[in-house]
C-alpha cells in the first residue's frame, strides 16, 4: 500500500498527502476531472487548448514558468480523454510557491484575447505538424470515429478538426473554465518532504477561499452495444500499409477490464509475445505489431496495431492476425505464460513506484476513479486472476461483431 492522508476542503477540493522524507523535494499534482470526453461536437479540443492557456498568466502571476523557475521548480501537464493533469516538482522548502501558483490560476486565470489568440496559433500549428503532416498522423482521427458512434471518445484530445480550434470564441473559453476549473472538480495530491499538517495549512490558506461552482456537467452519450464488424479504408502517401483492429472492452474498474488488460499483454507485450513471435519473427507480413488497451474510464478499446512489410496489404495482414487470435482463443493459457506476464507487471509497478512523481500521479489517478486505495488493490486483484476467467473474457470480447478495423493503405502517386 502507498501511505497517504486524505481530507476535503469546505469548497469540495479533495486533498491527498503522501509523505516521503527520503529527499528534500516535493511534488504538487493537480488533477481536473475534465478531458476531451467533456466536450461537444463543434467545440472539440477545448480541454487540450485549456492546458496551454493555463501556462499563461493569472491575476498575480505574470509568467507562470518564470515564477516557478525562481524557486528551483519545474512543471508540465497533459490532457487525456478523461482528465487534465498538472504537476510541479520543486524543493520542499519552496512548496508554498506551488500552492500560490496553482490557486491563482484556478481562481483568476487571465484569459485575454491576446492570450487566447497566441495559444490558438500554437495549438493549430501542433495540429498541423503532428496530425496532418506526419505519416499516419491522422490514424486516431479516423479510428476513433469508426470505433465510437455516440461517445465523445470518437474524437482525439487535440480536437476533431482544425475548424473547431479556429472557431473557439472567448465565451466558449470562459464557459469551459468556469464549468470545469473549480475546486469541487479537482484533486490535489502533494507528496515528498511534507507533513499532512503543513499541507492542510497551505491548502486552506490558498485554495479554501476559492468558491465552488457546483455546475452540473452535461451527461455523456454512451454507445449502444456493438453488433456488427465495422471497417474503413484510408489511402495516404505512407511508406507501407498499416492495420488497426480494436475490440470494445469494459471501462476501467468494471468487470472484465483487468482480464482484457492481461489478454493484450499475453498477445502483444514485448519481443517474446505471441504476436511478435508469430507475425514478425516467424512471419513475412508484419514489420511490427503490438496490442494494448486505452485504459479509459468509460468503455474503451483493446487495440491490435501493426505496420506491414513493403507491398503487403493491410487486408492480408488482418487474416494473419485473425488466425493468431483464433488460435489463442482455442488454447489454454499456460501457467508459465501467465506468471511471466504477471511478473512483468509487478516489475513495472515496482519500477514506477521508485519515483515520487509517479507515486503522486498514481494516487491522483486512483482517487479520480473513486479511492487512492485502488492504486494497489487493482494491482493485487489483477495478480490473482486465473487463466479460466481470462479466457472467458477473451472469448467474449475478441469476436468479429465486436471489432472495428482501419486499413491504412499506402499509395505511391
If you had to describe this structure to a student in words, what would you say it looks like?
- The chain is α+β, with helices and mostly antiparallel strands.
- The protein folds into 2 domains: 5-206, Metalloenzyme, LuxS/M16 peptidase-like (Cytochrome Bc1 Complex, Chain A, domain 1); 230-410, Cytochrome Bc1 Complex, Chain A, domain 1, CATH 3.30.830.10.
- The protein has 15 helices and 11 strands.
- The strands form 2 sheets. The protein has a 6-stranded mixed beta sheet, with helices on both faces. The protein has a 5-stranded mixed beta sheet with strand order 7-11-8-10-9, sandwiched between helices.
- A hairpin with a 6-residue loop joins strand 9 and strand 10 (300-308).
- Helix 9 crosses helix 15.
- The radius of gyration is 23 Å and the shape is globular.
- The N and C termini lie far apart (57 Å).
Q: Mean pLDDT across all residues, rounded?
A: 95
Structural class: alpha+beta
The profile of the biggest β sheet is:
6 strands, mixed
Instruction: Report Rg.
Output: 23 Å
CATH class descriptor name of the largest domain? Alpha Beta
Count of domains: 2
Sketch the topology as an H/E string, one letter per element. EEEHHEEHHHHHEHEEHHEEHHHHHE
Helix content: 40-55%
State the main characteristics:
Cytochrome Bc1 Complex, Chain A, domain 1; alpha+beta; globular; 413 residues; 5-stranded mixed β-sheet
Amino acid at each position: 500500500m502507498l501511505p497517504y492522508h486524505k481530507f476535503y476542503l469546505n469548497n469540495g477540493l479533495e486533498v491527498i498527502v503522501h509523505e516521503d522524507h527520503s529527499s528534500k523535494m516535493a511534488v504538487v499534482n493537480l488533477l481536473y476531472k475534465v478531458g476531451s470526453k467533456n466536450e461537444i461536437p463543434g467545440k472539440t479540443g477545448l480541454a487540450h487548448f485549456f492546458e496551454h492557456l493555463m501556462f499563461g498568466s493569472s491575476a498575480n502571476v505574470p509568467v507562470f514558468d518564470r515564477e516557478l523557475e525562481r524557486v528551483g521548480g519545474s512543471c508540465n501537464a497533459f490532457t487525456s480523454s478523461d482528465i487534465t493533469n498538472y504537476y510541479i516538482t520543486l524543493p520542499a522548502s519552496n512548496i508554498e510557491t506551488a500552492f500560490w501558483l496553482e490557486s491563482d490560476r484556478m481562481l483568476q486565470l487571465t484569459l485575454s484575447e491576446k492570450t487566447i489568440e497566441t495559444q490558438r496559433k500554437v495549438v493549430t500549428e501542433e495540429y498541423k505538424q503532428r496530425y496532418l503532416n506526419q505519416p499516419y498522423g491522422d490514424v486516431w482521427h479516423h479510428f476513433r470515429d469508426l470505433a465510437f458512434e455516440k461517445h465523445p471518445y470518437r474524437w482525439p484530445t487535440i480536437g476533431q478538426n482544425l475548424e473547431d480550434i479556429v472557431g473557439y470564441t472567448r465565451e466558449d473559453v470562459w464557459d469551459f473554465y468556469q464549468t470545469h476549473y473549480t475546486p469541487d472538480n479537482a484533486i490535489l495530491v502533494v507528496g515528498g518532504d511534507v507533513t499532512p499538517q503543513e499541507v492542510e495549512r497551505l491548502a486552506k490558506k490558498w485554495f479554501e477561499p476559492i468558491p465552488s461552482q457546483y455546475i452540473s456537467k452535461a451527461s455523456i452519450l454512451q454507445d449502444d452495444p456493438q453488433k456488427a464488424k465495422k471497417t474503413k479504408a484510408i489511402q495516404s502517401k505512407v511508406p507501407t500499409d498499416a492495420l488497426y483492429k480494436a475490440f470494445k472492452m469494459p471501462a476501467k474498474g468494471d468487470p472484465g477490464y483487468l482480464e482484457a488488460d492481461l489478454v493484450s499483454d499475453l498477445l502483444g507485450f514485448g519481443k517474446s509475445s505471441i504476436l511478435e513471435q508469430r507475425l514478425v519473427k516467424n512471419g513475412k507480413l508484419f514489420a511490427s505489431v503490438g496490442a494494448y488497451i486505452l485504459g479509459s474510464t468509460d468503455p474503451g478499446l483493446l487495440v491490435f496495431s501493426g505496420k506491414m512489410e513493403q507491398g503487403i496489404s493491410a487486408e492480408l495482414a488482418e487474416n494473419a492476425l485473425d488466425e493468431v487470435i483464433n488460435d489463442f482463443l482455442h488454447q489454454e493459457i499456460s501457467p508459465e505464460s501467465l506468471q511471466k506476464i504477471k511478473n512483468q507487471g509487478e516489475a513495472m509497478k515496482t519500477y514506477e513506484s521508485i519515483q515520487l512523481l509517479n507515486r503522486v500521479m498514481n494516487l491522483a489517478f486512483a482517487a479520480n476513479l473513486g479511492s487512492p486505495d485502488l492504486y494497489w488493490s487493482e494491482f493485487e486483484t489483477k495478480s490473482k486472476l486465473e487463466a479460466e476467467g481470462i479466457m472467458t473474457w477473451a472469448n467474449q470480447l475478441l469476436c468479429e461483431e465486436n471489432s472495428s478495423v482501419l486499413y491504412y493503405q499506402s499509395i505511391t502517386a
